[in-house]
Amino acid sequence: MMTRSGQVKFPCQSVTWHYARMQGSAYQTFDPLARLRSAATAREAAGLRRLLIPRAPGDTALDLASNDYLGLSGDPRLSEAAAAAARTWGTGATGSRLVTGTTALHARLEEELAAFAGAPAALVFSSGYLANLTVVTALTAALGPDVLVVSDGRNHASLIDACRLARTRGVRVQVTPHADTAAVTAALADRTEEAALVVTDAVFSVSGDLAPVAALHAVARRHRALLIIDEAHSFGVVGAGGRGAAQDAGIAAEPDVVRTITLSKSLAGQGGAVLAAPEVTQTLVDTGRGFIFDTGLAPPAAGAALAAIRALRADPGLPGRARRSAARLAGAAAELGLEVGTPDAAVVAVVLGDPRDALAAQRTCAAHGVRVGCFRPPSVPAGAACLRLTGRATLTENDIRMASRVLAIVRDHCRNTAQAGRNTI
To answer: Which domains does the chain have, with CATH numbers?
Structure first.
């Protein structure tokens, strides 16, 4: 329907679409996608364009990009467990956890997760991202409007988004410098709010360093705050048998500690979970929108995760092998003169600076048969674009040597292009 002003208004919509306007004898049309194309062009020029690159069956590239830290993806035990769950329960959960989406398999998974991790209780979600989102928003709502959230400056996007959602309801969020316990102490000591949460990754997803979780817990307890630890990159890799950073610090069962994990990294499947006191998990069941209104984890994913926990329990040496592989990769990069941190788990960051350099380096690695991650803003701060390599329990000596050879090619390209006056590979 055309209005008198020359606007097109679609039936059953309250929004008017400014599509065409008569001017003299010609129509001037509005292109609704022009700005999106312009923004995409700008991202391309800055080296910030992202692409989906499908993996093909039989791909023989050396994979140093995935989060399959224990090498369990494709393990026959997990595949058979997923298939058995599909045969028993079907391919989907069929509903939310509170309707039909909780099976005996989900209950068994939660029981074994809690027992393995040394946690009082566990609650399974369809993703780790959703677990983080739900924990922060539900707990800040349950604790009342007068709440402070103290968040590490390098926390994962899921925690950042959770804090942003909490802020829309009046919660105050204070971001502190990375791994700065003194800054957290000051934020908690100076607060006027009655309740507080301290939120941190355990192992940070790009830099690969370990948060001072024991010290943070001591600070949080002293100032009557809950500590939320995202163990996505530490569970299965850090601590005795891979039981996580909180267990390694001796705080896993403490009532003021809430942990989130993912089932998609070390456990080689899909989904997430919250490990916490029963009072916390029940609060999420009662009030957590990301739990109440989401379809439950598919039974095949639950079956695979359960098999992964049992595989890890049967081979407690897997986490140590993953950490040693990461240390070897970092050592190879350091010997080549590349900027690399010391990994505390399985993540190794090789910093190149400019996002265009990192993207070109990733392509160079791929051309030589090695798949690596490429992290650029906003995943990392400006000027800190990097290649992200991951250690894996199943990497061989030949794999490490191949990675070293390809990193040497990257280094040489960097030096040559820098000398030519253009810092691009």
So the answer is: 77-314 (3.40.640.10), 317-419 (3.90.1150.10)
Model confidence at 75, pLDDT cuts 50, 70, 90, reads very high
Q: pLDDT tens, 258-310?
A: 999 999 999 999 999 999 999 999 999 999 999 999 999 999 999 999 999 99
> What 8-state DSSP symbol labels residue 117?
H
User: Which two tokens mark 97?
Assistant: 């956890």
Q: Which residues of 143-165 are buried (b: 16+ CB within 10 A; e: fewer)?
A: beeebbbbbbebbbebbbebbeb
* CA–CA distances in Å: residue 401 to residues 178, 297, 316, 395: 33, 39, 26, 10
Q: Other CB atoms closer than 10 Å to residue 405's CB: what's the count?
A: 14
DSSP string over 210-261: BP-HHHHHHHHHHTT-EEEEE-TTTTTTSSGGG--HHHHTT-TT-TTEEEEE
- Cα 369–chain centre separation: 26
Q: Are 269 and 298 in contact (CB under 8 A)?
A: no
